[in-house]
Amino acid sequence: MGAVSEGRFWENVPLDKLDRAQWEALCDGCGKCCLHKLEDEDTGELAATNVSCRLLDRETARCSDYRNRRAYVPDCVRLTARAVQRGIAWLPSTCAYRLRGEGLPLPNWHYLVCGDAEAVHRAGESVRGWTVSEEDAGDWEHHLIDRPL
């Protein structure tokens, strides 16, 4: 595969054929995957919270130490094409990895489509402005949200 700028790779290159730069570029920067979810012990159903990982920069909706995140957050999930293709229920419905894994197009606000990295925030599709850090949250059950992720 070539560089990120080579064609519209997000439309025609299968997830498992993306190079590292293309894979990383596919992330829309919404930060939703960095929100903690609670699992119902009886049903296994996931419930979203507005509690963010302590490494999430809540202004930019990006990890503050992406390269070293697993050293600080050992259970941080490393997303792979194989995991996406198996189906990951906790990925947001707007997640570019999930959408591509399901054979669906990226939304118009995705920066690869529109060329504007701030569009995700203007579209209200990011966590900017409505989250609380896990360090300040207290009981996460008090932070359940109704908005879809």
Structural class: alpha+beta
* Strands side by side in the biggest sheet: 1-2-5
Number of helices: 7
Task: Determine the strand fraction and express it as a percent band.
Answer: 5-15%
Distance between the termini: 31 Å
Uncertain ranges: none
Radius of gyration in whole Å, from Cα?
A: 16 Å
Mean pLDDT: 91
H and E string: HHEEEEHHHHHE
Indicate the overall shape: globular
Largest sheet: 3 strands, mixed
Residue share in helices?
Answer: 10-25%
Counting DSSP E segments of at least 2 residues, the number of strands comes to 5
Q: Topology, please?
A:
Elements: H1 9-12, H2 20-26, E1 35-39, E2 46-52, E3 56-57, E4 62-63, H3 69-72, H4 81-86, H5 96-101, H6 111-114, H7 119-122, E5 132-133
Parallel strand pairs: 2-5
Antiparallel strand pairs: 1-2, 3-4
Summary keywords:
single chain; 149 residues; alpha+beta; three-stranded mixed sheet; 23% helix
Description:
The model has no long low-confidence stretch (mean pLDDT 91). β3 and β4 (62-63) form a beta hairpin. 23% of the residues lie in helices and 12% in strands. With 149 residues, it is of the alpha+beta class. Strands 1-2-5 form a 3-stranded mixed beta sheet, with no helix packed on it. A two-stranded antiparallel sheet has the order 3-4.
